[in-house]
Amino acid sequence: MNLKKAIFLIAIVAVAHLSYGQVREESFGAPDPIKQVQVYPNPAIEFLSLKFEAPQAKKVKLTVHNILGNTLEVETEVVDEHEIKLKVKELATGYYFVSVRDEQANLRGTYKFLKR
Length: 116
Description:
The chain is mostly beta strands. The chain has a single domain, classed as Immunoglobulin-like (Sandwich). The protein contains two helices and nine strands. It has helices spanning 3-14, 33-36, and strands at 21-23, 37-40, 47-52, 61-66, 71-72, 76-80, 83-87, 94-102, 107-115. The strands form two sheets. The chain has a five-stranded antiparallel beta sheet. The chain is globular and about 30 Å long. The termini are far apart.
């Protein structure tokens, strides 16, 4: 197991007490990422939508990880300037994480979702 996966697994254990929802990344002076991103429906069956309060959706970088920390390729669609849909239909049932990054809007967050 490499260091990146080990750190990711430690993060999973640290947030195991959270129900469906978000994994916080604290950054002082920056807006709370949880208030800036809505992730729905959760649990998801075919699509997972991410709606952004401030950043433009086409500038946001998304990364999806399985529970083991492996990066997965997931098809995305920019719905409008504040929303992105992830096609999760092909994913196996289970928990996943989607990391959201937009350096211009100072947005960083990791969100847990369940694929049914």
